[in-house]
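Workshop exercise sheet. Pairs work together: one partner reads the sequence aloud, the other fills in the structure field after running the prediction. Swap roles for the next sheet.
Pair: D.N. / O.F.
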Amino acid sequence: QMVAIGEEAGSLDTMLLKVAEFYEEEVNNMVDALSSLIEPFIMVFIGTIVGAMVIGMYLPIFKIAATM
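Structure field:
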């Protein structure tokens, strides 16, 4: 519709620029919403990995200390 209006008015480049800006803003909003939903899960996943690494490092130390 905006392309047709731009053709009729003789300002197709302006209308296409407005359409591009609109869709760019829409994509940016969707990416922001998606990243705000995914971010907590990523934090929990990274925390689990770090926790497993810490336990893997300290467990042998505790076993050695228990045998003494």
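Discussion prompt: The radius of gyration is 27 Å. What would you look at next?
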